[in-house]
Amino acid sequence: MSDIKTKVQAIDANVQPRHVGGMAENTGNIYEALAIISRRARQLNVDIKQELHQKLEEFAVSSDTIEEISENKEQIEISKFYERLPNPAIIATEEYLNGELYWRMNERRERDLD
User: Where do the structural domains in the chain lie, given as residue ranges?
Assistant: First the structure.
């Protein structure tokens, strides 16, 4: 996951318009390209969420009283860092457009398309 964090530092977190024809070049179908991007975005979302929970569990204090709420500056900084990361869909789109993703079609689906 740390390689993803270093890679996404250079990605602009803002949504940008994309040329649809360019996205469909590799697959020949825009819907297939979007399916590939969305599956990768789901993978990234799960990975980022798991990493965030692991880091925040390090600061977890087990206490039985609800009244004790303490703010930890490190927890706040970690949370802010993950909030500033680009959306997983933006990361997945960049990976797709840069040719960094690998995918394959299911054999049954290939027969259905013929």
Answer: 2-6+19-61+69-113
pTM score, whole prediction = 0.73
Contacts 24+ apart (CB under 8 A), 15-24: 15/87, 15/90, 18/93, 18/97, 22/97, 23/96, 23/97
The number of residues making up the chain comes to 114
What is the number of other CB atoms lying within 10 angstroms of the CB of residue 110? 10
Quick one: CA dihedral 3, 77, 49, 30, positive or negative? negative
Distant-in-sequence contacts of 100-107, Cβ < 8 A, 24+ apart: 101/36, 101/40, 103/36
pLDDT digits (tens, 9 = 90+) for 71-85: 678 888 888 888 888
What is the three-class DSSP state of 41? helix
- The C-alpha torsion from 10 through 13 and 19 to 22, rounded to 10°, is 40
